[in-house]
Amino acid sequence: MKPPKFDYHAPKTVDEALALLTRYDGEAKILAGGQSLMPLLNFRLSRPAALVDLNRIPALAYIKEVDGSVRFGAMTRQRAIEFSPVVARRLPLLTEATRWVGHLPIRTRGTIGGSIAHADPSAEYPAVLTALDGEVVARGPKGERVLKPRDFFQTYLTTSLAADEILTEVRLPATPAGAGYAFEEFARRHGDFAIIGIAAVIVREGSRCTMARLATAGAGPIPVRLRAAEEILEREGLGDDALARAAAKAQELVQPDGDIHASADYRRHLTGVLTGRAVKRALTKVARWICGACTILFNGEAARSCIMLAVQAEGAELRTIEGLMENGKLHPLQEAFHEHHGLQCGFCTPGMLMTALDFLRVKPEPTEAEIREGISAVLCRCTGYQGIINAVKAAAPVMRGS
User: For 85, left (φ over 0), alpha (ψ -120 to 50), or beta?
Assistant: First the structure.
């Protein structure tokens, strides 16, 4: 399996790359990560006159936060996205979806721009772009265009990019604090393209859904935004009946093709099943931007002081970690943290203690699973969670008896 002959160019700037595309007048292909293009070349399913390799253009690889969004240079590696703390904090859905992309060696070379520009409808990144209603930036000889998914994806492996344009940037709005997220996928083997995938983001207030975002992978020639299913959740809430109706509606909204891997009916059925799973799991996974170390008790209830104005505390009863000791004696929860090694660097300890204090007031006899969920609002940078869990578990009966 050898590719056909072609000219090879490795420009150092975007302008040089654009000049080459203009020179070859539609007969050149862009090489990004190459994880999809190289097999096509090796099987001689693609026969370009030239390859324009973008890997020597450092200006196209970056991750940065700008005005409530995260922007990615088109050549940002999927591996960099997978392990980026910025992405994990601001776009946890993208982090989760990335782990479904091939395997680690594939993600080492694959890029976000290459995946989206390739426009395989079974791929994960186009589904995330569609669910989050992000944008791509296309640059050509006439300047830049900013495109939404509905204007970018046209059909299988086809986008609205002109032959002399390069996708240079991907922009995704940051996930709202408190939003739930999930990426559900079914493939024959992990790392294969999805037979069906569902990207979900849910914002809730109690049992009410204030925002739902659902999009598919593998359910048609382009990613499908399941708007009618979203509307059911936003209108009817997050009860079991509403979830079942939304999943059924998702199944109705797609028109997948059949192939050797799955029939159209099977893909349609999976769309409903995975929509239900994605929404349910999104309700258990909450995106949190902040570490929780600043947690105090505000009128007896845990609250984050870093996102409150001082004026809001007027007339309220505030309790910080300094207020836990009484008559020079450590609180039972502090004693338990000391006894069970529930602190390491100490950065998260105030927030952990105050959060656990409120949690044990509400759940005086918690299970370990409930403790894990109860303290999940606070980030331990030293990953000393098991010691913290053991301390909370040990403090619970002492606090019940005091």
Answer: alpha
Bridge partner residues of 166 (DSSP): 139
Among candidate residues 390, 291, 378, 295, the one with its CA nearest the CA of residue 342: 390
Domain spanning 7-173: which CATH class is it, in words?
Answer: alpha beta
In angstroms, rounded to a whole number, what is the distance separating the alpha carbons of residues 84 and 79? 8
CB-neighbour burial class of residue 88 (10 A; exposed 0-12, middle 13-18, buried 19+): middle
Strands 63-66 and 69-73: antiparallel
Helix (H, G, I), strand (E, B) or coil at 203: strand
* CATH of the structural domain 180-282, one choice from 2.60.40.1190, 3.40.50.10160, 3.30.390.50, 3.40.50.1370: 3.30.390.50
- Superfamily of domain 295-401 in CATH is [2Fe-2S]-binding domain (1.10.150.120)
pTM of the model: 0.75
The contacts of residue 259 (CB under 8 Å, 6+ apart) are none
Determine the Cα–Cα distance for residues 348 and 395; give it in Å rounded to an integer.
Answer: 18
β-strand pairing of 28-31 with 143-147:
unpaired
Among 171, 195, 205, 29, which residue's Cα sits nearest to residue 94? 171
Q: Evaluate the CA torsion angle 272, 274, 279, 281 in order and state its sign.
A: positive
Q: Would you write out the chain's pLDDT as a tens digit for each of its 402 residues? A: 688 999 999 999 999 999 999 999 999 999 999 999 999 999 999 999 999 999 999 999 999 999 999 999 999 999 999 999 999 999 999 999 999 999 888 898 999 999 999 999 999 999 999 999 999 999 999 999 999 999 999 999 999 999 999 999 999 999 988 899 999 999 998 889 999 999 999 998 877 999 999 999 999 999 999 999 999 999 999 999 999 999 999 999 999 999 999 999 999 999 999 999 999 999 987 655 457 788 888 888 888 787 666 767 889 899 999 999 888 899 999 999 999 988 878 888 998 999 999 889 888 999 998 898 788 778 786 767 889 999 999 999 999 986
Contact 16, 166 (CB under 8 A): no
Residue 341 identity: H
Q: Cite the residue boundaries of each domain of the chain with CATH code 1.10.150.120.
A: 295-401
CA gap 366, 371 in Å, rounded: 6
